[in-house]
């Protein structure tokens, strides 16, 4: 822990000298942070409603599901990152009656839709940051992913051949990895085939709404440190930050999302020190807000007195 604190201090020193950090903190407005913390509550309710589209059996247990979702948000801000949060959710959704296989497939299906949204928004933002047409690759790939998901009931032939080839791979660590990946893809597209295009559209709509609310959180964190930036810049920052956090890292997405956000803000001529503080505040706001939501959801669930569903069995 001591080494981590020293490393963090050294990294912050590289970003800006202490005088700039002091100036950024002096301009902080706590009211913006309080507003951001309160917005986390409806933000995570959108997550609950999105998952209900993919795993309908959790809908009767909404208070328990909300409790699980707030807990997942807290876990996802730790060094285990998004994957750790997803594992936590899959394990806990069994309490709502969802089979682990269905919850896993739905989670990865949701991540594919979320990643396509991230690619599209960050690509459009990149047009302004880089002044180049290269970022348009993002929206194109996003449309391809959404097309594949929308055609899950009758997937392209090359996908079937890809899965079969992965299944036929020989033994060894690489072969086992490909076999597991092929099995997961099969479950994902089976889950996608069970959805109507209207349901996929609703999941996409909830994902876009989540991005809009998350950008408000980032915007309020930027305003809290005295950065008078526009809402579209905050949207670009969180999109590029989320894209950076998709890079595999032993520390989860800790540092990657912040680095992506600061880099994006630098493209809009935002000073590094306050931008870094705002990025760190965003993570803190998510933890505090989700922790508050977890307390509220736990109390409501207990007062309603509804027992958890029995885990699904084969």
From TrEMBL:
<dbReference type="Pfam" id="PF03706">
    <property type="entry name" value="LPG_synthase_TM"/>
</dbReference>
<feature type="transmembrane region" description="Helical">
    <location>
        <begin position="108"/>
        <end position="130"/>
    </location>
</feature>
<keyword id="KW-1003">Cell membrane</keyword>
<keyword id="KW-0812">Transmembrane</keyword>
<feature type="transmembrane region" description="Helical">
    <location>
        <begin position="281"/>
        <end position="300"/>
    </location>
</feature>
<feature type="transmembrane region" description="Helical">
    <location>
        <begin position="136"/>
        <end position="152"/>
    </location>
</feature>
<dbReference type="InterPro" id="IPR022791">
    <property type="entry name" value="L-PG_synthase/AglD"/>
</dbReference>
<keyword id="KW-0472">Membrane</keyword>
<protein>
    <recommendedName>
        <fullName>Flippase-like domain-containing protein</fullName>
    </recommendedName>
</protein>
<keyword id="KW-1133">Transmembrane helix</keyword>
<feature type="transmembrane region" description="Helical">
    <location>
        <begin position="259"/>
        <end position="275"/>
    </location>
</feature>
């Amino acid at each position: 822990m001591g080494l981590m604190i020293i490393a963090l201090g050294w990294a912050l020193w590289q970003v800006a000298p202490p005088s700039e950090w002091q100036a950024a903190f002096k301009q902080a407005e706590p009211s913006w942070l309080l507003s951001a913390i309160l917005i986390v509550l409806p933000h995570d309710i959108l997550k609950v409603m999105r998952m209900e589209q993919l795993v309908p059996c959790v809908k009767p247990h909404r208070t328990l599901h909300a409790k699980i979702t707030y807990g997942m948000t807290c876990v996802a801000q730790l060094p285990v990152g998004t994957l750790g949060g997803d594992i936590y959710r899959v394990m806990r959704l069994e309490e709502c009656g969802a089979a682990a296989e269905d919850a896993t497939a739905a989670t990865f299906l949701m991540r594919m839709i979320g990643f396509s949204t991230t690619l599209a928004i960050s690509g459009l933002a990149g047009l302004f940051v880089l002044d180049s047409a290269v970022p348009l690759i993002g929206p194109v790939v996003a449309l391809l992913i959404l097309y594949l998901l929308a055609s899950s009931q009758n997937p392209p032939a090359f996908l079937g051949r890809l899965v079969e080839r992965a299944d036929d791979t020989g033994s060894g660590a690489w072969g086992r990895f490909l076999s597991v990946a092929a099995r997961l893809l099969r479950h994902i597209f089976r889950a996608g085939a069970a959805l109507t295009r209207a349901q996929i559209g609703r999941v996409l709509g909830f994902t876009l709404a989540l991005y809009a609310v998350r950008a408000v959180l980032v915007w309020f964190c930027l305003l809290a440190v005295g950065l008078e930036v526009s809402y579209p810049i905050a949207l670009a920052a969180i999109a590029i930050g989320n894209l950076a956090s998709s890079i595999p890292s032993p520390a989860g997405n800790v540092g990657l999302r912040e680095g992506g956000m600061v880099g994006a803000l630098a493209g809009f001529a935002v000073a590094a020190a306050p931008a870094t503080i705002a990025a760190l505040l965003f993570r803190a706001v998510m933890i505090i807000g989700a922790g508050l939501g977890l307390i509220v959801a736990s109390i409501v669930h207990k007062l309603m007195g509804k027992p958890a569903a029995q885990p699904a069995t084969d």
